[in-house]
Amino acid sequence: MMICYFTASGNCLYVARRIGGNLLSIPQLMRQDAIEIEDDAVGVVCPCYNCEMPMMVREFMRKAHIQAEYFFFIYTYGAGFGEAYAHAKLAAEEEGLTLSYVNAIQMVDNFIPYFDMQEQIDTLPKKNVEGQLEAVCADIDARKTTDVEITDATRAQMAMYRKRLADVWLKKDTALSYTVNDSCIRCGICAKVCPANNITVTPDGVRFSDHCEVCYACLHNCPKHAIHMPLEAGTTQFRNEHVTLNDIVEANQ
Asked: Is the predicted pLDDT of residue 165 greater than 80, yes or no?
C-alpha cells in the first residue's frame, strides 16, 4: 500500500503513518518530471481547505499516473468538509480512477485567520482523534467501499468553491502580505518546511514569492514565532504532538 500525503502542521503525516504502508510526500513527488504510482492500494491523505483539497494536491491528481485496485482519499478537517468527498471523487474520475473509499478525520484546524489554535487544541479530547483513526484504518484494512453521489447541483457548487478558493482564500500571492518581526534569526526553517519553495532566506531577511500554498507551515513551525499574517485569531502555533519539526522539514524540503 502507498500513501501520498500533504502536510503543513503534521496532522496528515500522522494520519498517513497510522494507516501505514509506503509513505510518499506529495511536494517531493511534484518535483519529479513524471509520477508513476502502482500498488494494490493507493491513498491520498490531505487537509480539507474549505470543502476542497489543497491546490498542490489537485495538481498532483492531474500529474500523477496512479494504478490501484483500491484507491482512497482521507481528509483532515477542523470545522467541516462540505462537498470535499465529491471533490475527491470527481478529481479521481477526471484521471480515470475509481474512488473506492473516502473519509474525513476531525482534528485541529490550523486556519489561523478563523481559528484560535489554543481553543482548537483544547477541543481535541472531545474529537476522539484516535477513535476516528482506528475506524478509518479498520475500514481500509477491510477494503471497505463508499459511494459518493455527484449531482448537477453538486458540480455547480464545486465549481463555485474552486473559483472562490483561487480568487479569495487560497491566492498564490497570499504570503506577500506576511510580515517577519525582529525575533527572526534567519534560521531558514520557514523555507525548509514550505512545500512550494515559496520562501528564500538570506542574511538580509526573509522573502516570500507568489506561489504560496496557504498551508501556514511557515507560520506554525517558525521556532521564534516571527512570521505573521494580517489577520490571526490567536497567538498560539500548532504542530501535531506526534510529529516533530524535523519530520515536517523532511516531508517538504
From this structure: no
Q: Is residue 155 part of a domain?
A: yes
Q: Are 102 and 71 in contact (CB under 8 A)?
A: no
180 and 151 assigned to the same domain: no
Element spanning 56, H or E: helix 55-63
Q: Are 137 and 21 in contact (CB under 8 A)?
A: no
- Looking at 130, 163, 196, the residue that finishes a domain is 163
C-alpha 97/C-alpha 27 separation (Å) is 21
Q: Give the helix, strand, coil percentages of the chain, each rounded to 5.
A: 40, 20, 40
Q: Is 87 within 8 Å of 53 (Cβ atoms)?
A: yes
In this prediction, residue 109 carries a pLDDT of 86
pLDDT band at 163 (very low <50, low <70, confident <90, very high): low
User: Which string of DSSP letters, residue by residue, matches 81-129?
Assistant: -TTHHHHHHHHHHHTT--EEEEEEEE-----TTT--HHHHHHTHHHHTH
Q: What range defines the domain where residue 206 resides?
A: 174-252
Residue 156 pLDDT more than 80?
no
C-alpha–C-alpha distance, residues 74 and 18, integer Å: 12
One domain, residues 27 and 58:
yes
* 216 phi/psi in degrees, rounded to 5: 70, 20
In DSSP terms, which residues pair with 2 in a beta bridge?
22, 42
* Together in a domain, 185 and 101: no
Which pTM value belongs to this model? Answer: 0.92
Domain total in the chain? 2
Q: Do residues 97 and 66 touch, judged by C-beta distance below 8 A?
A: yes
C-alpha cell at 43: 491513498
